[in-house]
């Protein structure tokens, strides 16, 4: 897989989304992320229409259920010709294996989510009763995903070196939380620029509002892609 800039779509209606995409040249190869909210609103027909337009798709559904249910769901998604699909690593070894088995025969890469960015050390200890330090929990779940057939993880750019150290240099690390240099805010945490993510070993970056809400989305995308590609 090439190292893509993945544009996170976050629109209330599909018309607004298509208007955004129409700003780009028809030959512009875009990689688009469809999250749970948009998928629930527009469903598979929307995914199909974007694939027919030539876009590559990251379907960010974060599946988490009993292994047999996840396997059957992945068997359906395997027919959709999407490039990336997410599950929760915390679903355990058997669920991860089941998801990978469900995708057998397709080109869809399976990515595991380790720790949601909304969960900090306090939540891990007090709510989930996880005794590990946050970074140790992340690497533990990444290793669990790696050992059970996942192709990669969703991670902070800052976590990439330690994840690759316990897995493999070929284990994909796709990183959200990316902001271009011009939009860095001093009080934001766990955020990286495209060039920082590249130097840390990220295999792809996910960018939403800095592109989708820019006055000129095409220019914003091209500037981020240039910074990422340096």
TrEMBL record:
GO biological process per UniProt: 'de novo' pyrimidine nucleobase biosynthetic process; 'de novo' UMP biosynthetic process
Pfam family, one: OMPdecase
Alphabetized UniProt keyword annotations: Decarboxylase, Lyase, Pyrimidine biosynthesis
Pathway(s) where this gene product acts: Pyrimidine metabolism; UMP biosynthesis via de novo pathway; UMP from orotate: step 2/2
Keyword Amino-acid biosynthesis: no
Domain Orotidine 5'-phosphate decarboxylase: 4-224
SUPFAM superfamilies hit by this protein: Ribulose-phoshate binding barrel
Substrates-to-products reaction catalysed: orotidine 5'-phosphate + H(+) = UMP + CO2
Entry binding sites for substrate: 10, 33, 60-69, 117, 179, 188, 208-209
GO CC aspect terms: cytosol
Active site per the UniProt annotation: 60 (for ompdecase activity), 62 (for ompdecase activity), 62 (proton donor), 65 (for ompdecase activity)
Enzyme Commission number(s) from the entry: 4.1.1.23
GO MF annotations in UniProt: orotidine-5'-phosphate decarboxylase activity
Keyword Endoplasmic reticulum belongs to the record: no
Quaternary structure and partners: Homodimer.
Function: Catalyzes the decarboxylation of orotidine 5'-monophosphate (OMP) to uridine 5'-monophosphate (UMP).
Similarity-based family: Belongs to the OMP decarboxylase family. Type 1 subfamily.
PANTHER family: OROTIDINE 5'-PHOSPHATE DECARBOXYLASE
Annotated HAMAP family: OMPdecase_type1_B (MF_01200_B)
Entry protein name: Orotidine 5'-phosphate decarboxylase
């Amino acid at each position: 897989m090439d190292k893509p800039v993945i544009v996170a779509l976050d629109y209330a209606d599909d018309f607004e989304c298509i208007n955004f995409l129409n700003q780009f040249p028809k030959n512009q190869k875009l990689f688009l992320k469809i999250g749970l909210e948009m998928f629930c609103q527009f469903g598979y027909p929307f995914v199909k229409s974007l694939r027919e337009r030539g876009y590559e798709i990251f379907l960010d559904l974060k599946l988490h259920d009993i292994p047999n249910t996840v396997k059957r769901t992945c068997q359906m998604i395997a027919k959709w010709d999407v490039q990336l699909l997410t599950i929760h690593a915390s679903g355990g070894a058997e669920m991860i294996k089941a998801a990978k088995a469900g995708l057998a025969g397709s080109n869809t890469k399976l990515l595991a989510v380790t720790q949601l960015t909304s969960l900090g050390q306090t939540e891990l200890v007090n709510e989930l009763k996880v005794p590990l330090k946050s970074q140790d929990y992340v690497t533990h779940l990444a290793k669990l995903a790696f050992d059970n057939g996942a192709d990669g993880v969703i991670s902070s750019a800052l976590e990439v070196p330690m994840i690759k150290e316990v897995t493999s240099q070929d284990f994909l690390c796709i990183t959200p939380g990316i902001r271009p240099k011009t939009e860095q805010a001093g009080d934001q945490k766990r955020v990286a620029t495209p060039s920082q993510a590249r130097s840390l070993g990220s295999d792809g970056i996910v960018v939403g509002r800095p592109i989708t809400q820019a006055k000129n989305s095409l220019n914003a995308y091209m500037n981020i892609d240039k910074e990422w590609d340096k």
